[in-house]
Amino acid sequence: MVERAHRPASSGMRFENCRVVATGAAQGIGAQIVRDFASQGAEVAIIDKLLPEAEQLASELGGTAIECDLSDPCATRSAVTSAITDLGRVDVLLNNAGIFRITPLLEISADEWDSIFAVNVRAMLLTTQVAAGAMIKQGTGGKIINMASMGGKTGAANQAHYAASKAAVISLTQVAAAELGEHGITVNSICPGYVLTEMGAATRTPEMVAEWSSKSPLGRLAQPSDVASMALFLASSDADYCTGQAMNVTGGMITH
Predict the structure, then answer these.
(1) What is the pLDDT of residues 160-183, one digit of tens each?
(2) Domains located in the chain, CATH noted
(3) Which one of the listed residues 65, 162, 176, 187 is annotated catalytic?
């Protein structure tokens, strides 16, 4: 764990005095989200298996980095507890961590299925239990944002385990929203479509990008900033009456 550096107060910023715990935020979409939170005054704690990347980003943002393999239940609970302790409280939990595999349906092993669900769903349950418990004790409500996927609403070939896990995230979000609402905690999920992350761009040919872009009425793929904007909306007071939702960021590729 790297200690949080001092950052001067940012008077008038949207998330000043907000404490954010984010999983899987060392790179890609998660990194963009925590950067945007920090730019608006939030204090962030990044929980990720990629410790060097997490430490570098946390150092840039004046935040905290905690190494954790989210497939390990005990380590997951401990990491979230440590993050909350370091920040002093938790106002927003961003469950961004997830893993993706492409495997034909008839070739998916039980171990591969379980490994996807361990990170994409079980870890999300555990982080929610710890963070929501802390939010309830604080008595100030809170925001929980879960990263689902367009695949959780419309499955794609060779992604049975991934799509099923993201459908489970949507259901978990709905149940958590129903149970935690009385405590002033909102729970929502985000369903991105194709997103052009720096990491993913290296594996996508111009032809692939053109084909996927044509699926959107807007004629382009999402940028990480598109997803980050939705996350910050859901974390803001503007979304106080929004809970149990699965918000599409797909450029119109799906509309349900």
Answers:
(1) 999 999 999 999 999 999 999 999
(2) 19-246 (3.40.50.720)
(3) 162
User: Positive or negative, the Cα torsion across 35, 36, 39, 42?
Assistant: negative
- Nearest by Cα to 46 from 28, 68, 29: 68
162 is catalytic: yes
Q: Are 10 and 16 in contact (CB under 8 A)?
A: yes
Statement: the pTM of the whole predicted model exceeds 0.85? yes
- Position 185, amino acid: I
d(CA 74, CA 68) in angstroms, rounded, equals: 10
Tell me the pLDDT tens digit for each residue of 81-119: 999 999 999 999 999 999 999 999 999 999 999 999 999
Q: Dig out the tokens for 151 from the structure.
A: 């695949």
How far does CA 108 lie from the centroid of its chain? 25
Residue written as token pair 């070939």: 157
